[in-house]
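FORM 12-B: Structure-to-Sequence Request
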């Protein structure tokens, strides 16, 4: 059994930041990463060539807590290579292919069970992001669609549907359009969203607008709702989306739709926080009800954290995308306050540093300050 000061689950930006700061403070930390590389979650969800931006939340005055992890408006491949090289120079201990399973208390320590080994630590940092796909909610026997863009060239020569109204969907639409345009392929890229309004950052909107001006064949489908997954007469799995509903007399509804082969559908409909995992681990959460939560959607379960990102279980911390888009902060006087938490690289890095500084203070391995004591 491996004995360390801290086990960090996940080698994304938050986990790496936590590990780097731990080493600076003299803590013995190990990172458990179920993938084969650092930033595995980002690499799995970003299309090839997508730029990674150094987006900072509005009103935030602090710079990136670990400057070397700040993106530089660069393609994801370049960001990955730069971060990978930096991690090697820092001597961060990462166990790849090691999937976290659970933890349990053993006296004053925490025993961590993983796929290949067991670890005992004074603290655990859960930095595994928000990686559970949102269900499309379709009916029928065919339900499997791609959640990210693999090879854009596979969609040359055929119309392609991208679902989702946020940055990830916009990036996929832009990448597909560029690929088709470069190949002189004029088949359209359909961009569908169940709502009327799309919501993307300025940088992403600028890239998309530039692609449209350059002649990209992008067609917008507002109010497009995925309905049915079926297998047609030729054995092709297809997704039917509802694009328009017209009310007729006597309660009759006329619906218009479109059908796409599922292999040419990319669903960028987001991910949800791992509330099910938190529940299994025994971490306290509060369910949002009408009028209670401002940022969390009704029915969502928000994890309880103190200002240092410690959960209801002493010594266990949760950071980054795992606690987005909001969490419940337990104030020092015991009051509860909902906190908005942007799912950004900036926030994950900031969280990781703050959590480890809190751990160092608890272990007596760092000078205490009012900010770190939180």
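FORM 12-B RESPONSE
SEQUENCE OUT:
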């Amino acid at each position: 059994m491996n004995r360390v000061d801290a086990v960090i689950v996940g080698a994304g930006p938050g986990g790496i930041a936590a590990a780097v700061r731990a080493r600076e403070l003299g803590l013995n930390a190990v990172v458990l990463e179920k993938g084969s590389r650092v930033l595995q979650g980002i690499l799995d969800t970003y299309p090839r060539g997508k730029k990674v931006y150094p987006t900072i939340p509005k009103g935030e005055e602090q710079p990136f807590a670990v400057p070397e992890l700040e993106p530089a408006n660069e393609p994801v491949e370049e960001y990955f290579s730069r971060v990978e090289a930096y991690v090697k120079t820092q001597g961060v201990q990462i166990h790849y292919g090691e999937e976290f399973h659970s933890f349990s208390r053993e006296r004053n320590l925490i025993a961590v069970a993983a796929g290949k080994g067991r670890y005992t630590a004074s603290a655990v940092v859960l930095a595994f992001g928000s990686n559970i796909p949102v269900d499309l909610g379709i009916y029928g026997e065919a339900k499997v669609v791609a959640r990210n863009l693999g090879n854009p060239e596979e969609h040359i020569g055929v119309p392609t549907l991208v679902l989702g109204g946020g940055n990830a969907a916009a990036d996929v639409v832009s990448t597909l359009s560029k690929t088709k345009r470069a190949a002189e392929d004029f088949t359209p890229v359909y961009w569908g969203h169940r709502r009327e309004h799309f919501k993307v950052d300025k940088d992403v909107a600028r890239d998309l607008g530039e692609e449209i001006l350059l002649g990209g064949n992008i067609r917008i489908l507002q109010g497009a709702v995925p309905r049915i997954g079926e297998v047609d007469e030729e054995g092709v799995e297809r997704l039917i989306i509802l694009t328009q509903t017209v009310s007729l007399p006597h309660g009759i509804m006329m619906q218009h739709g479109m059908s796409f082969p599922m292999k040419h559908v990319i669903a960028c409909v987001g991910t949800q926080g791992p509330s099910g995992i938190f529940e299994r681990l025994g971490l306290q959460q509060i369910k949002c009800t009408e009028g209670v939560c401002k940022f969390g959607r009704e029915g969502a379960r928000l994890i309880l954290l103190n200002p240092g990102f410690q959960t209801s279980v002493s010594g266990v911390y949760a950071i980054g995308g795992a606690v987005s888009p909001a969490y419940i902060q337990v104030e020092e006087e015991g009051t509860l306050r909902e906190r908005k938490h942007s799912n950004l690289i900036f926030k994950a890095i900031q969280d990781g540093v703050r959590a480890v500084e809190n751990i160092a203070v608890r272990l007596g391995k760092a000078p205490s300050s009012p900010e770190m004591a939180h």
